[in-house]
Write a structure and sequence with these properties.
By secondary structure, the protein is mainly β. Helices cover about 0% and strands about 45% of the residues. It has one helix and 22 strands. The strands form five sheets. Strands 13, 14, 15, 16 and 17 form a five-stranded antiparallel sheet that branches. Strands 18, 19, 20, 21 and 22 form a five-stranded antiparallel sheet that branches. A four-stranded antiparallel sheet has the order 1-2-3-4, with no helix packed on it. Strand 15 and strand 16 form a beta hairpin. It is globular. Belongs to the glycosyl hydrolase 68 family. InterPro entries: Glyco_hydro_68, Glyco_hydro_beta-prop_sf.
Amino acid sequence: MATAEGSPFPWRGGELWFALAAPVHDDPEVRHGVARIHHFHRIGGRFEHLGATFPMDFTPGSREWSGCAVTDGQDVTLYFTATGARGEVAPSFLQRIFAATAQLQDSVEAFSDWSEPVEVVRPDGVVYMDEHEATGRIGEIKAFRDPGFCRTSTGVDCLLFTASSAEGRDSHNGVIGCAVRDGEGMFRIQAPLVEAVGTNNELERPHLIEHAGRCYLFWSTQAFAFAPGIDAPTGLYGAVADDLFGPWRLLNGHGLVLANPETEPFQCYSWWVLPDLSVGGFVDYWGIKDALAREKPEGRRHFGGTFAPFLQLQLDGDVATLADGYA
């Protein structure tokens, strides 16, 4: 949970964090079909699980996917992805972006009752694909998800999201979408900030920070989301611009900010850069190098499913590196 400018908001001697969670299954990949948003108390370097954030069957989807939480110290607005449709028999990949609000409480309950979820932005079918409900393999489905809120230093409220281009209907047509809040409080669709038509299918969990007078845009993607013939690793990628609307330049000349080591290509994912340049992430599969091993029972036992140790970035203009001691 953060302020509108992106800094973690202090709560009960620590911070409130949100993450997807799912019941334990023999196959960890089942989590994508049953995930829900949970909240955690980060205090003393540890994460204490507090429970599911929304009541069961509260949101319009059959499960919830990623988003972000913003607070002014009194109210909390949670932007999230409602995936599938409530009550559906077979999980679909319909993705819609909603927001709900509650009062922040100084108790372990954390929130008052949530307001009814409201759909805050929709794909238009012209710039952003509105056909993403079909079943399919993870990494190949089309997207409209992962809302990330940011208020720029110039006072612009924007909502970034993972989307698929309606103009470039390639098998790999990922974009980072943007909507800006107007004078009536509504988010209005803008052109994508970054597009990867012909290059990559999923630019996931986009988020923006401002540092040293520049805007830095970050996202995560996986090796298998790149088009055939492109040998690029699972990692955190980024771009830099002088303001929200660009033009954007890929960090380090190629976009890659950090990647899993070659000996541990699946160990971490879903990175999030905070304004102090610390980087959180998610432990995926550790201790295996072969992608096929994840599909075997012994490989599935290597699933982490928890917060990863934090890293620290350094930013210098168009260059992003890990700080000393984090290599």
